[in-house]
């Protein structure tokens, strides 16, 4: 017979001595010194007892009083201890019968303790008869009545019967998912620091996480350590818990990129000050991509509407600075309406934290991390938007003296809306056409002055002008460039010709233009269907805008 | 000052206390409670962690956000409480289970959400008026039941105990419980039935 008695100072010492003929004993005690350690938790204490202090051999039966607390019976530490036995495979006694002893009835305990339902789970017995003779009878009884079942089924039945709640700091699924994601993704990425270690220890010792692991068993060995961010650019990470594991994860993902983070001091700030601090950092660092935690303040975990959540307010402020800055929201939220609100406010991507429920799916962590790389890469590939937005924003003031400024600004706004929504090759081509219309607007407003056509005299190897009846848009803009603005860069004008030809090729579906190969066999004009084509045209148009602004005071000829 | 209340994240009070601003204002209005704010609070936490904070002699209770302090700071408070018999409440979001200890001085380790409840303001009022019996009043409105169940466990153990020293200690614990509960009967082996009846009555009423 090999029984185990867990006891405390309130149990008669003689009884403990007598029990030793049935097996071994373990005295549970927690000193004040331990309680005052800033890292102490009851779960860590019990976990360490089971993994390191009690002999881990297989017992026939384990006896525990309902309460192991010496001075506050209602703590019911005995019940918690038993739950740990059931959920700690390392102790080797998952299915060992447990007998609770005390003077209360099962129903009374169930009424007084949240985890009282353990008394109605498989392999649990109770007794009011506290004597070694009675305990000996109990051991014989439970041994005779024991029937082993597969561990998975046993744990499934246990988790269905017993409801274990998270502690106060895990009051919402967000904080559980947060810690769980850090644990899973740090393991997959093979990153470690003291915070990650703390989380790992917590997850391996905390009763609620043990319960989740039993509820959602994961078997995979995950490794997502072989990916890289290929696009260039600057990345900023904003989170109030920046140092608690997330920073090292994103630092690893963004290796070799210009990466910075902020949020360490957010715990001491109210929501509006957090927004202020984040925006100051955005202005200083001028990132291309921002990874933004959705909930950055205690109040954000209250049941408030999305637009009052600190992350949402920061997102709005970032988009006020520059709509082209790509913002990826990091969130544990599973509420679709929150995500939709964020999308409406300008969120460009989402990284959803991994909850224990999701980890059941084979390969989930690895796939989630691959998606993070993809999301960041895609966002960085759109960093041209930031520059384009910044230029358009500048034009609003630069063009203030130009008489047709409203038309120009209006067209730039249409172009911008089309650009941010462009996904297909046709979208990009139509966006190109929209941008090209700036040239038409400029030409239209100076048309009356132009009476000559610009052409390239190949013999003389220079541009010439002659009066004509019908002018092309290129003729007009070239005329303006050389004659009105007195510019001399003929390569620019020739390049402008290519850019305009591309537009014409698309509008007239002219295969001779669009499918034309260069000497290297590249279809250069096909870039009308890409962001690269748009960036080229935008640069040319920027030069035209600068000419207009520089020559704003030049009288019309 | 009777009570030093160190909370470095005051927004939590508004989050958890049932009457929000009203409760916070009430606590702030209590002359016997010293609850430092912002920089002053940070300064005090730093001094406690550096073991150079001077606790006032009139102090009877310290309430502190446990996570704000390092183990060194908590040890400094422990020594003070032990020497001066000052009670101590440590609250934190990370405390998964309430722990009460009465070795040398009364000590309560409690989760923030269990601490900031409708029990806090009446407890502070009662403590200032010297009408409070135990820190467990903060933890559970059925704190008397906790003592009664404990007493029943101890009575059972006394009956099984042969070691006179151990028996004496258990009887001493029982005396302390009797003092706290002040029932019209003494809780002992002869009155077990009365105790059982009272326990059943309370549990049924829940």
Q: Can you put this structure into words, describing what you see?
A:
The complex is a heterodimer of chains A (about 550) and B (about 210). Helices cover about 50% and strands about 10% of the residues of chain A. Chain A is an alpha/beta fold and about 550 residues long. Chain A folds into 3 domains: about 5-160, Response regulator (Rossmann fold, 3-Layer(aba) Sandwich); about 165-380, 3-Layer(aba) Sandwich (Rossmann fold); about 385-550, no CATH class. The termini of chain A are far apart. Chain B folds into 2 domains: about 5-135, Rossmann fold, CATH 3.40.50; about 145-205. A 6-stranded mixed β-sheet of chain B has the order 2-1-3-4-6-5, with helices on both faces. In chain B, β3, α4 and β4 form a beta-alpha-beta unit. In chain B, α3 packs across α4 and α8 packs antiparallel against α9. The two termini of chain B are about 35 Å apart. The model of chain B has no long low-confidence stretch (mean pLDDT about 90). Chains A and B meet through α1, α2 and α5 of A and α1, α4, β5, β6 and α5 of B.
Count of helix runs of chain B? 10
Q: Which CATH top level class of the largest domain in chain A fits?
A: Alpha Beta
Cα-to-Cα separation, first versus last residue of chain A: 112 Å
Number of strands of chain B: 6
Overall SS class of chain B: alpha/beta
- Specify which chain pair forms the largest interface: A-B, 53 and 62 residues
What can be said about the biggest beta sheet of chain B? 6 strands, mixed
Shape of chain A: elongated
Q: pLDDT average of chain B, as an integer?
A: 92
Assembly status? heterodimer
- The CATH architecture of the largest domain in chain A: 3-Layer(aba) Sandwich
Give a short account of the largest sheet of chain A: 5 strands, parallel
Strand content of chain A: 5-15%
Shape of chain B: globular
Task: Output the CATH topology of the largest domain in chain A.
Answer: Rossmann fold
**Portion of residues in helices of chain A?**
40-55%
String of helices and strands of chain B:
EHHEHEHEEEHHHHHH
% residues in beta strands of chain B: 5-15%
């Amino acid at each position: 017979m090999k029984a185990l008695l867990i006891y405390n100072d309130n149990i008669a010492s003689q009884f403990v001595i007598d029990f030793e003929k049935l097996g071994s004993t373990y005295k549970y005690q927690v000193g004040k010194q331990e309680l005052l350690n800033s890292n102490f938790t009851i779960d860590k204490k019990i976990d360490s007892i089971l993994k390191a202090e009690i002999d881990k051999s297989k017992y026939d039966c384990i006896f525990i009083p309902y309460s192991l607390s010496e001075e506050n019976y209602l703590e019911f530490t005995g019940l918690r201890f038993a739950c740990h036995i059931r959920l700690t495979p390392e102790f080797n006694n998952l299915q060992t019968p447990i007998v609770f002893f005390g003077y209360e009835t099962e129903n009374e305990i169930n009424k007084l303790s949240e985890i009282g339902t353990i008394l109605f789970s498989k392999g649990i017995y109770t007794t009011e008869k506290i004597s070694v003779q009675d305990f000996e009878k109990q051991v014989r009884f439970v041994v005779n009545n024991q029937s082993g079942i597969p561990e998975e089924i046993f744990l499934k039945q246990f988790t269905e019967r017993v409801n274990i709640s998270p502690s106060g700091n895990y009051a919402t699924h967000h904080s559980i998912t947060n810690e769980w994601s850090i644990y899973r993704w740090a393991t997959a990425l093979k990153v470690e620091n003291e915070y990650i270690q703390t989380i790992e220890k917590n997850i391996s010792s905390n009763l609620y996480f043990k319960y989740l692991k039993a509820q959602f068993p994961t078997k995979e060995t995950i490794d997502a350590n072989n990916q890289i961010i290929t696009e260039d650019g600057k990345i900023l990470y904003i989170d109030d818990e920046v140092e608690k594991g997330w920073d090292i994860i994103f630092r690893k993902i963004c290796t070799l990129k210009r990466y910075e983070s902020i949020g360490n001091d957010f715990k001491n700030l109210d929501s509006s000050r957090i927004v202020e601090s984040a925006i100051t950092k955005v202005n200083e660092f001028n990132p291309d991509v921002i990874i933004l935690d959705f909930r950055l303040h205690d109040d954000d975990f209250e049941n408030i509407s999305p637009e009052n959540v600190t992350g949402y307010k920061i997102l709005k402020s970032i988009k006020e600075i520059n709509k082209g800055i790509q913002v990826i929201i990091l969130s544990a939220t599973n509420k679709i309406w929150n995500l939709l609100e964020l999308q409406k406010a300008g969120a460009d991507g989402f990284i959803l934290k991994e909850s224990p429920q999701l980890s059941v799916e084979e390969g989930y962590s690895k796939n989630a991390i691959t998606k993070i790389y993809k999301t960041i890469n895609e966002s960085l590939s759109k960093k041209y938007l930031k520059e384009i937005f910044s230029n358009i924003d500048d034009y609003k003031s630069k063009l203030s003296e130009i008489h047709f400024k409203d038309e120009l600004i209006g067209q730039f706004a249409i172009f911008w809306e089309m650009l941010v929504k462009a996904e297909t090759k046709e979208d990009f081509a139509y966006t190109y056409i929209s941008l090209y219309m700036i040239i038409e607007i400029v030409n239209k407003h100076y048309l009356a002055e132009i009476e000559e056509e610009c052409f390239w005299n190949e013999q003389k190897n220079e541009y010439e002008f002659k009066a004509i009846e019908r002018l092309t848009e290129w003729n007009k803009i070239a005329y303006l460039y050389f004659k009105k603005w007195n510019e001399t860069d003929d390569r620019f004008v020739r390049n402008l010709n290519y850019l305009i030809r591309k537009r014409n090729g698309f509008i007239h579906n002219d295969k001779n233009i669009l499918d034309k190969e260069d000497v290297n066999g590249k279809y250069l004009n096909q870039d009308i269907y890409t962001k690269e084509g748009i960036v080229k045209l935008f640069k040319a148009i920027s030069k035209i805008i600068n000419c207009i602004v520089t020559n704003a005071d030049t009288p019309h000829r | 000052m009777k009570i030093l209340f160190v909370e470095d994240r005051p927004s939590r009070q508004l989050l958890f206390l049932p009457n929000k601003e009203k409760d916070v204002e009430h606590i702030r209005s209590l002359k016997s409670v010293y609850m430092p704010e912002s920089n002053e609070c940070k300064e005090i936490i730093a001094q406690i962690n550096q073991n150079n904070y001077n606790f006032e002699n009139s102090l009877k209770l310290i309430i502190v956000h446990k996570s704000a302090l390092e183990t060194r700071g908590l040890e400094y408070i422990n020594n003070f409480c032990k020497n001066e018999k000052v009670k101590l409440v440590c609250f934190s979001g990370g405390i998964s289970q309430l722990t009460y200890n009465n070795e040398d001085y009364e000590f309560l380790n409690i989760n923030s959400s269990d601490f900031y409840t409708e029990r806090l303001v009446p407890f502070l009022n009662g403590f200032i008026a010297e009408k409070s019996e135990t820190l467990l009043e903060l933890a559970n409105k059925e704190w008397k039941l906790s003592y009664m169940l404990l007493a029943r466990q101890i009575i059972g153990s006394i009956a099984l105990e042969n070691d006179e020293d151990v028996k004496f200690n258990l009887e001493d614990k029982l005396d302390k419980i009797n003092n706290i509960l002040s029932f019209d009967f003494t809780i002992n082996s002869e009155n077990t039935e009365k105790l059982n009846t009272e326990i059943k009555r309370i549990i049924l009423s829940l």
